[in-house]
Amino acid sequence: MRKTYKYIFYGMIAVMMVVYLTCDVLSLWDSRPLKFITSALITLFGLSIFNKKEGRFVSIGLMFTLLADIFLVLLDKYLYGVAVFIVAQLCYAVYLTYISGKKLPAEILKRIVPAIVVSGITAALGFKGNIILPAAYAVCIGINIAHSVELYIQKPTKNHRLLMVGFIVFVLGDICVGLRHMPFIAESIASVLYFITWISYPPSQILVLTSAEN
Q1: In sequence order, what are the residues at sequence separation of 6 or more whose Cβ sits closer than 8 angstroms to the Cβ of residue 60?
Q2: Which of 16, 74, 107, 111 is most exposed, with minimal Cβ within 10 Å?
Q3: What integer is the mean pLDDT of 34-49?
Q4: Distance CA 170, CA 174 (A)
Q5: Between 54 and 29, where is the model more confident?
Q6: Confidence (pLDDT) at 41
Q7: Which residue spans within 101-184 are E strands per DSSP?
Q8: Quick one: average pLDDT of 73-96?
Q9: Angle, to 10 degrees, between the axis of helix 104-124 and the axis of helix 78-100?
Q10: Minimal CA–CA distance to 197: which of 93, 81, 43?
């Protein structure tokens, strides 16, 4: 991505974030369509690195993330959104595997097997889908974070640092989303969590995207 276009892109995202956060704080109007447009714009710019092998995995991950946003942001279908987010994290797992030089089948199994085990345990304990699916997702993104940290420790490059920070910021927003859907969370707390989610979400996507540019 050329620097000029990159700065225009960053500026557009920043303006859109300021607008939708202001709408949320002042309760001006429903900002969900603007939030979705923000995610769509990030995905669109993600296509600029689709011709690179490692970038292709990130681009596909962003596409699935956008699909998840359709369910979470526009349709308010929480479990469908989480299910698609799991697929997005598996795409990022492929990206991590490629840039770290590890074997793909083993790395995918490292995510899928623990996710199935954790889902089975939560189901056996009597929890419903609003806990079971997020538990599986937490396993996938948790292992991706651990993988990104390991990668940065072994090869402390700028891109690896961006990727690691991107995943950490990403999971911050995910934690807020998960907590918002817990029945014991007060409405006032849920509003704060929602605000934090949309402060952290676009930057996390941009950091992951930028890590695959060079």
Answers
A1: 91
A2: 74
A3: 93
A4: 6
A5: 29
A6: 95
A7: none
A8: 94
A9: 150
A10: 81
Torsion of CA 97, 147, 49, 46, to 10 degrees: 130
User: How far apart are the C-alpha atoms of 82 and 130, rounded to whole Å?
Assistant: 9
Q: How many CB atoms lie within 10 A of CB 100?
A: 15
Are 55 and 213 spatial neighbours (Cβ–Cβ below 8 Å)?
yes
Q: Is the pLDDT of residue 1 over 60?
A: no
Task: Using pLDDT thresholds of 50, 70 and 90, give the confidence band for residue 54.
Answer: confident
Six token digits for residue 185: 């969370």
- In one-letter notation, the amino acid at residue 83 is A
Q: How many CA atoms lie within 13 A of 115 on its CB side?
A: 22
H-helix segments, 101-128: 104-124
Q: What are phi and psi of 75, to 5 degrees?
A: -105, -10
With a cut of 70, say whether residue 87 has pLDDT above it.
Answer: yes
Residue in the structure block whose two tokens are 């097997």:
113
Q: Report d(CA 137, CA 61) in Å as an integer.
A: 14
pLDDT band at 208 (very low <50, low <70, confident <90, very high): very high
C-alpha span between 17 and 26 (Å, rounded): 14
Contact between 97 and 103 (Cβ < 8 Å): yes
